[in-house]
Design a protein that fits this description.
14 helices; Rossmann fold; 5-stranded parallel β-sheet; alpha/beta; N-(1-d-carboxylethyl)-l-norvaline Dehydrogenase, domain 2; globular; 2 domains; 10 strands
Length: about 325
């Protein structure tokens, strides 16, 4: 089996290393950039596990700037794991095309609403393309939905130095077909990931799983980027918390209309977030580092879908506008 990870950062590096270390007869390659590519080429896959042990495995590492002929030398892959942030996806599409064969499975390990979300899902938005996520349909054209198996990642990892992943907590991975079928390839992928020590499960409603995770992230992430506050401080301010809960109610109403109902209240979700303590969200870290924010997939898509199903989103709109302006004025 031939597997390539595109985006060997925290999540891609963790899953790639686990697959490479656990799989016999499986080649797990990586397409990465800059210092990460250099570190992988020198040291291979490296993960500092939560118990302190170092997991390592060999890797064939290619730069994301490599020419198509070099990438094609890897051959058509059985599995591509796309572990880049949504806003970086268009830039890596040239690396995907040479590796994509007729039977290649693509697992996008992305936060927020993905480009394929409404393909085969049914409901009022069946087949709708989201300009906020995939303007011009470029990603959908490069990666047709027949290749896609959706995912939701429930694991926390960090990158203390290029090419080295520190596993903090969690190994959860939900996988599901966009058309919500229990396919043979889905079952095989679940077993593959379980064999790598991941807590993988198959879902027959992957869109609902994606929407639920989005529902929990779409407020804390941008509000932390706006305020520079850790999650606990956001929760402790009653006015800010009320603002976040208002946005969550808007997103829950959208979810109910598109077939992704939320069976919890914002207060229920806040209890879960509080258990995580004083953590710094990924969007806060990106804001402070001057990187592009994962805003359209997490917030812009909610606004766009709300308009499609006639749900007003004044609070979501405010979060989107304020965070977008704050990022532009850094």
């Amino acid at each position: 089996m031939r597997i390539t990870v595109i985006g060997a950062g925290a999540i891609g590096g963790f899953i790639g290393a686990r697959l490479a270390a656990a799989s016999v007869g499986t080649a797990v390659s990586a397409v990465a950039r800059g210092a990460t590519h250099a570190a992988l080429a020198e040291h291979g896959w490296r993960v500092r596990e939560a118990d302190g042990t170092l997991l390592s495995a060999p890797v064939a590492a290619l730069a994301d700037s490599a020419d198509p002929a070099s990438l094609a030398a890897l051959g058509e892959q059985d599995l591509l794991l796309l572990a880049v942030k949504a806003q970086a996806l268009p830039a890596v599409l040239p690396a995907v095309t040479p590796l994509l064969g007729p039977e290649t499975v693509v697992i996008p390990a992305l936060n927020g609403v993905p480009w394929w979300f409404f393909e085969g899902f049914g409901g009022p938005c069946e087949g709708r393309s989201l300009d906020s996520v995939d303007p011009g349909g470029r990603t959908a054209a490069a990666i047709p939905v027949r290749h896609v198996v959706g995912s939701v990642v429930h694991m926390s990892c960090a990158v203390p130095e290029p090419g080295l992943v520190r596993h903090v907590a969690g190994t959860g991975l939900i996988l599901g077909e966009p058309d919500r079928t229990a396919s043979q390839r889905l079952a095989a992928l679940v077993e593959l990931m379980r064999g790598a020590g991941l807590d993988a499960t198959g879902s027959q409603s992957i869109q609902a799983d994606i929407w639920y995770k989005l529902w929990g992230n779409m407020t804390t992430n941008p509000v932390s980027a706006l305020t520079r506050a850790t999650a606990d401080r956001i929760i402790d301010d009653e006015l800010v918390l009320a603002f976040c809960h208002a946005a969550m109610r808007e997103a829950a109403e959208i979810g109910a209309r598109i077939g992704c109902p939320i069976g919890e209240t914002p207060d229920d979700r806040t209890v879960v977030t509080r258990k995580l303590g004083a953590f710094r969200t990924s969007m806060l870290q990106d804001m402070e580092a001057g990187r592009e924010l994962e805003l359209d997939a997490l917030v812009g898509a909610v606004r766009e879908i709300g308009r499609a199903v006639d749900v007003p989103t004044p609070t979501v709109d405010a979060i989107l506008g304020l965070t977008r302006l704050a990022a532009a004025c850094r």
